[in-house]
């Protein structure tokens, strides 16, 4: 009953009809979010987990070393419950005399004190703490072989070196899924509606596409065993080999050094999320990783847009778009009215000036052509007038 109530909360209605009354286009869709379970944030959570566990182990080693050395019996901490009749102090200020310890030890133990010296063994045991120096780093199975890195959290530093064990990496990532014991729960114990995998088709975008294509170059139709084999082979390669292949252009143009560095981790995380978190069968074949749909990149924001507009029918969206278009046109016309008016005046003035210049040019041309005719007329008329008026 509790799971059914949780399922009702995760259902959202989408009306894709032209009117609110057109209920034949109303769809009930399972909607939820998994913030904090993306690839980059999962890496931060994993580093926090490794850092805390390693520091706790180091503290336990230090406490064990101090106790054993103070008691002059290095094996006493491990075997105390087996043969000590009474609890011994965890830390003492001074080494206990061997005669005092002999009284509480069984007679089967050798009466001679151990040969390990407390003053010389304490620094050796303290030097075995993992991750506090580059000489003794934490061996991270989720990084390529030989890659060195430093994890810093609140002035605490952990030195790590990759060992490229993809299977062990997946086992270490399993607790980060925060699954519950119920079969209908996915990541973080959130209810997941039943899926008919035999009659369903899924598309994986964003990190699902990057993990399969950028480095492994097997994007498209997903096949679990093929992906696991390619990811395991990649993790087992030396970091120097991977960087050389990157320089030779053997990976996708979208790949960068960050992708090379965390591809092993992200591929293991994607595999765990898909099969252990969302319960996809390992041989599922109806999943396709993609980046473009009709030559357009698709991201998770498309789902956010659909969720925000789920109560707005298409006709209302179209009318709202028309109203916004008219309003924007009126605002633009009001703003640019004065500019258009001045532009029209300038065009008219320019046309008038060009017309006057053309008239003036025509007038000069007519003047130049009429001057020779007048001279010719004078040359012909004046002699004739002289002949007529002569004696």
From TrEMBL:
Keywords, ordered alphabetically: Hydrolase, Membrane, Transmembrane, Transmembrane helix
Domain of life: Eukaryota
Necessary cofactors: Mg(2+)
Matching InterPro entries: GDA1_CD39_NTPase
Transmembrane segments: 339-357
UniProt xrefs under Gene3D superfamilies: Exopolyphosphatase. Domain 2
Record-stated family: Belongs to the GDA1/CD39 NTPase family.
UniProt-recorded name of the protein: Ectonucleoside triphosphate diphosphohydrolase 7
Organism: Saguinus oedipus
């Amino acid at each position: 009953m509790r799971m059914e109530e949780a399922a009702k909360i995760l259902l959202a209605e989408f009306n894709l009809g032209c009117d609110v009354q057109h209920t034949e286009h109303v769809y009930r869709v399972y909607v939820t979010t998994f913030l904090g379970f993306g690839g980059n944030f999962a890496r931060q959570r994993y580093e926090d987990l490794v850092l805390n566990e390693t520091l706790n182990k180091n503290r336990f080693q230090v406490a064990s070393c101090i106790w054993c050395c103070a008691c002059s019996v290095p094996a006493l901490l491990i075997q105390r419950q087996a043969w000590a009749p009474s609890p011994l102090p965890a830390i003492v200020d001074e080494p206990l005399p061997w005669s005092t310890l002999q009284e509480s030890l069984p007679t089967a133990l050798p009466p001679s004190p151990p040969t390990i010296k407390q003053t010389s063994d304490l620094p050796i045991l303290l030097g075995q703490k993992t991750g506090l120096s580059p000489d003794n780093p934490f061996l991270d199975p989720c990084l390529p072989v030989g890659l060195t890195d430093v994890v810093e959290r609140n002035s605490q530093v952990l030195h790590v070196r990759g060992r490229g064990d993809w299977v062990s990496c997946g086992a270490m990532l399993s607790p980060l899924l925060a699954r519950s014991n119920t079969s209908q729960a996915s990541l973080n114990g959130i209810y997941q509606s039943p899926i008919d995998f035999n009659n369903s088709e899924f598309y994986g975008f964003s990190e699902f596409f990057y993990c399969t294509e950028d480095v492994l170059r097997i994007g498209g139709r997903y096949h679990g065993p093929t992906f696991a084999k390619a990811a395991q082979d990649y993790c087992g390669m030396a970091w120097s080999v991977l960087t050389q292949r990157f320089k030779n252009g053997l990976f996708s143009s979208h790949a960068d050094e960050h992708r090379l560095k965390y591809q092993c981790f992200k591929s293991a995380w994607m595999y765990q999320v898909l099969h252990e978190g969302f319960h996809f069968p390992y041989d599922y074949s109806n999943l396709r990783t993609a980046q473009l749909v009709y030559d357009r990149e698709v991201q998770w924001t498309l789902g956010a847009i659909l969720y925000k507009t789920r109560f707005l029918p298409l006709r209302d969206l179209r009318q709202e778009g028309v109203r916004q278009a008219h309003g924007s046109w009126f605002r633009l016309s009001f703003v640019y009215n004065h500019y258009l008016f001045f532009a029209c005046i300038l065009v008219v003035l320019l046309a008038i000036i060009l017309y006057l210049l053309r008239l003036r040019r025509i007038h000069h041309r007519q003047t130049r052509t009429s001057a020779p005719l007048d001279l010719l007329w004078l040359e012909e008329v004046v002699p004739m007038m002289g002949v007529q008026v002569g004696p």
